[in-house]
């Protein structure tokens, strides 16, 4: 038996207000089944596609069997979900003829990537042939797959709040922010010191630099563009709270406020331009970041151009984009990224 004060620190109850699951060592589990049921219904019942033939929309979630849960063991989150889903869809041709069909999704689970999920679209028995079936099998199935991807990403963000508890020192087991520099640590010693530093930064011209990065993702420009501007998906790949206003002039905060900025231009599937800054940069100073998406036939090449980056922050900014954006997206969504 260990002497008093010499036991394994992972089992020592620290002085916490709640006195539960100290250091995230013990296994905790949270049932996400009811939340998942409501989330899936909300996402799937918004599916609607149309073309020159008419309109198709999901009108009913007729079957939703399964379960979902999240486990925390030693500070690591383990996600489990398994669903068998059946939907009813209705098509309306330009001549106002109504059609009814079904969508079956038998293998929505943590064992399959989003692209591997089987989505079977059919017409109801005795319904006559219609070109709307092809519309639903292509555009409709794609929207359904995107909705399922959104469910998975929100499950890993919205429903995990509070499962990784801070230690007695208030530190997270997995750092959500880039490692602070020594200058940042000095800047946070007191409010007065920070205010003084900020006041000196205003109006001071600083040396800046330019960076360029390229990355290839195994997905379409449409899907990848959505990853960068959808709040739930951003929270999923950064593993931290975010706030996104996906409009021209819209503000954003990432990594729990460590990164802030504003969208200056949004061209769907083509380009995202933004004013962007680290929290530690001189007050009021923003870099200009432009992401350009190029369709490479089954792959998307992203070119990042960054201008106006403080010269002493060049490497940190470059590595921040590689790690927190590109690698984070690859690991979260499985797009098989390739760095140049």
What does this structure look like?
The protein has helices at residues 33-44, 132-155, 182-187, 191-201, 221-229, 231-238, 314-333, and strands spanning 28-31, 48-51, 54-73, 76-93, 98-109, 120-123, 208-217, 243-244, 251-254, 259-267, 271-278, 287-295, 300-310, 338-339. The protein is α+β, with helices and mostly antiparallel strands and 340 residues long. The protein folds into two domains: 28-160, Activator of Hsp90 ATPase Aha1, N-terminal domain (Bactericidal permeability-increasing protein, domain 1), CATH 3.15.10; 206-339, 2-Layer Sandwich (Alpha-D-Glucose-1,6-Bisphosphate, Chain A, domain 4), CATH 3.30.530.20. The N and C termini lie far apart (54 Å).
| Largest sheet data | 8 strands, antiparallel
* Poorly predicted ranges: 1-26, 163-203
Helix content: 25-40%
Total number of beta strands? 14
Q: What is the terminal-to-terminal distance?
A: 54 Å
Number of helices: 7
What's the CATH H-level homologous superfamily of the largest domain?
A: START domain
CATH topology of the largest domain: Alpha-D-Glucose-1,6-Bisphosphate, Chain A, domain 4
Total domain modules:
2
- Strand content bin: 25-35%
User: What characteristic shape results from the CA principal axes?
Assistant: globular
What letter string, H or E per element, gives the SSE order?
A: EHEEEEEHHHEHHEEEEEEHE
Which structural class do you get from the secondary structure elements?
A: alpha+beta
Query: Could you tell me the mean pLDDT?
Result: 80
* Widest sheet, order of strands: 8-9-10-11-12-13-7-14
Rg, please? Answer: 24 Å
């Amino acid at each position: 038996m260990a002497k008093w004060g010499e036991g394994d620190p992972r089992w020592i109850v620290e002085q916490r207000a709640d006195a539960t699951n100290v250091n995230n060592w013990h296994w905790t589990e949270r049932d996400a089944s009811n939340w998942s049921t409501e989330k899936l219904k909300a996402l799937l019942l918004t599916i609607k596609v149309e073309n020159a033939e008419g309109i198709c929309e999901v009108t009913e979630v007729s079957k939703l069997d399964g379960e979902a849960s999240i486990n925390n063991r030693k500070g690591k989150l383990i996600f489990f979900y398994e669903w068998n889903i059946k939907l009813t869809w209705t098509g309306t041709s330009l001549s106002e003829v109504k059609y009814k069909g079904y969508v079956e999704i038998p293998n929505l689970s943590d064992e399959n990537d989003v692209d591997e999920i089987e989505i079977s679209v059919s017409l109801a028995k005795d319904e006559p042939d219609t070109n709307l079936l092809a519309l639903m099998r292509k555009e409709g199935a794609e929207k359904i797959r995107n909705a399922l991807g959104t469910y998975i990403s929100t499950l890993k963000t919205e429903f995990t709040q509070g499962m990784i508890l801070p230690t007695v020192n208030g530190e997270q087991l997995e750092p959500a922010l880039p490692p602070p520099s020594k200058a940042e640590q000095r800047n946070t010693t007191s409010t007065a010191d920070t205010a003084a530093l900020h006041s000196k930064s205003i109006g001071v011209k600083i040396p800046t630099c330019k960076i360029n990065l390229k990355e290839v993702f195994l997905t379409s420009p449409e899907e990848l563009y959505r990853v960068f501007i959808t709040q739930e998906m951003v929270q999923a790949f950064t593993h931290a709270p975010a706030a996104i206003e996906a409009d021209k002039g819209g503000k954003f905060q990432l990594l729990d406020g460590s990164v802030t900025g504003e969208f200056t231009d949004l061209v769907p599937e083509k380009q995202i331009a933004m004013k962007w800054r680290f929290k530690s940069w001189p007050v009021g100073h923003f870099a200009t970041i432009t992401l350009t998406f190029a369709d490479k036939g089954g792959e998307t090449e992203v070119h990042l151009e960054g201008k106006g980056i403080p010269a002493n922050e060049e490497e940190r900014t470059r590595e921040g984009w590689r790690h927190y954006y590109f690698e984070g997206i690859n690991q979260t969504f499985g797009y098989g990224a390739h760095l140049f």
